[in-house]
Amino acid sequence: MKEYKVTIPVDYVQGHLRYGHLEGIVEVENEEELKKLIESKEIEDYLSIEVDDYSVEDYGDVKYEDLQYKELKKENE
């Protein structure tokens, strides 16, 4: 039996973002420089928001004309 991953775009998604966190890789010369970025709050310029929890209440028209699928390979194949 074969498995496929199917993706179909929708017009919109409506719901609520619950909470998230900032995350990223910061390149500095030393830990002291990192601490200065944190203290000045400039650290936020180096990070991106990641959503941890959300709820979807509704979504728009399904765009079947843009449907894509890809066969998933099993590890033992």
Short description, anyone?
By secondary structure, this protein is mainly beta. The protein has one helix and four strands, in the order ββαββ.
N-to-C CA distance: 12 Å
Number of helices: 1
Q: What integer is the average pLDDT?
A: 93
The count of strands amounts to: 4
Q: State the secondary-structure class.
A: mainly beta
What is the makeup of the main sheet? 2 strands, antiparallel
| Strand residue percentage | 35-45%
Strand order of the largest sheet: 1-4
Note poorly predicted spans. none
Shape: flat
List the helices and strands in order.
Answer: EEHEE
Rounded radius of gyration (Å): 20 Å
- Portion of residues in helices? 10-25%
Structure description:
The chain is mainly beta and 77 residues long. Helices cover 13% and strands 43% of the residues. The chain contains one helix and four strands. The strands form two sheets. A two-stranded antiparallel ribbon has the order 1-4. The longest helix has 10 residues, at 31-40. The radius of gyration is 20 Å and the shape is flat. It starts with a strand and ends in a 5-residue tail after the last strand. The model has no long low-confidence stretch (mean pLDDT 93).
Q: How are the SSEs ordered, and which strands pair?
A:
Elements: E1 3-7, E2 13-23, H1 31-40, E3 48-59, E4 68-72
Antiparallel strand pairs: 1-4, 2-3
List keywords for this structure.
13% helix, two-stranded antiparallel sheet
